[in-house]
Request: fold
Amino acid sequence: MTDLIRNCAHHSTHQTLIDLGQGAQSARTIKTTFTADGVAGLQAEHDGLSWYASRLNKNASEMVLVFRSTPGYARLETPYVNGNVVHMPADPDTLIGKLNNAVSHYISKIWNGDETPSHGDYSLSNHVFNNADDVIRIIDWEHFNRKLPAQYDPLYMIVEPFLFWDVNQKKPSERSLAAANTAILNLNEAIKLEADAIASPASWLRKTADTHRDAWGQQADKVPFLNAHKNQISTIDRVLGKI
Reply:
């Protein structure tokens, strides 16, 4: 059985399917595209997965089963990763355990100094967790790049849930805000964030995304911190700053 989980209606440059034909143990995710921009995205995903495999001390073939590419077509097949995923918007209170483990995963497995490349969409929704909230895998590397500063990904992961929560006219609890601030401070202790990133993380993310739009190419308009209203950005910085 093959399930279509993403297509051009999702504003994507490729379609994504999950092939369960050989059973759960052999299931695979299949991405195909017929556009030049889509080919670039699948090439980036191939490169990102290969880099990530090296950080996990795995062979790239464990992450990428098939990759074929021409100027106008590409196909990428990867093992299907079965686990729990976050769907935004999500109450930040429900994400604290996942967030803490995701920050630890970034520091121990992703961070490689100032030369660390960027996933480009390092959302909690692109993390797959087990039932204990441990990170099993990072997925969707189609925006993998070496243009964004290394600090962008983990800070984006921490702050993004609050943006979506505010966009949906909901207010985060002091508990989740305190957890986010603790995560930012722990991140700073490990990788040394810029001062502005600590003081006004949402504004820093917006400014950084705006000055690095070429990291996403034609997909830049999908970046949440570029789409959000300035008042929403200010709100996130204000509520985080109260804790």
In short: The longest helix spans residues 36-55. The CA atoms of residues 213 and 220 lie 6 Å apart. The beta strands are 2-6, 15-19, 28-33, 66-70, 73-79, 127-129, 135-138. The longest strand covers residues 73-79.
